[in-house]
Amino acid sequence: MKLEGDVDSADISDLNSSHCVLLTEGCVSYVLPHTSPRDACRASLISKGVRRFANSDVVWERFLPADYEEIISRSVSPVNYSSKKDLYFRLCDSPIILDDGNLSFYLHKQNGKKCFMLGAKALSVAWSTSVFWRYKYSPQSRFSEVAELVAVCWLEIKGRIKTSMLSSTTRYAAYLVYDIGPLSCGFDFPAKTLVRHVDGTKDDDDDVAMTVVYLKPPNTHSETIRVVPHKRADGWMEIELGKFYNDKIDGEVDIRFTETCQLHWKSGLIVEGIDIRPINEEE
């Protein structure tokens, strides 16, 4: 016989379940902004209530850079989005072109860190104002023009980026993004790369820190070749130029790719730019 005020086990189970859901949603609303985009996406599968918090602007604005509004205001075309989550993935999947059209910005999908690509016309290219290089439209490029090498024996490409533009306390790598035309020549020889914080080091000391790379690795196997080019998802090739840790508030990073020793004639190189992005956590 059930007396007035008695609560059976089913009622207690329902009550505990309700409290558990409320507690879970309350915890999630507090914890999620301090996690990662991947965690937020996973949490959205727990329940409808949790999904509401996991997809909210409060959560996803924390994953965007603090200066994201200033950055997208510099886009050469409007950046449309329906929510902060939509904006996050829009910036991950579709780089935006900034300022004068020679700089692109996107987010690293895993952690929301800032990534930039310096377009070919934002780079310092030796002999680029002469008949040895030409700038042309490429339908495969995010930029209006890429640089195509007609013929040089002295190949030198440099780029610089301010550390304040990048995410702080983050390990980055810089990559030359390029292609090689069917009538190319001169890229079976080693080139040198250098990535460093600008701190007044003399040019005479640069050769010590340089890395040897091949845009077209030789057919013979060699254990000394540690950096090889890779095919990107967008169809371009890329080769790592070097890594650096960004812990400087005010400074610059100097990035170089050179082949000025062998002095063989080279032609057919097509340069889209230099991509600067965080290193994956597992690397």
TrEMBL record:
SUPFAM superfamilies: F-box domain (SSF81383). CDD domains: F-box_AtSKIP3-like. InterPro entries: F-box-like_dom_sf, PP2-like. This is F-box domain-containing protein.
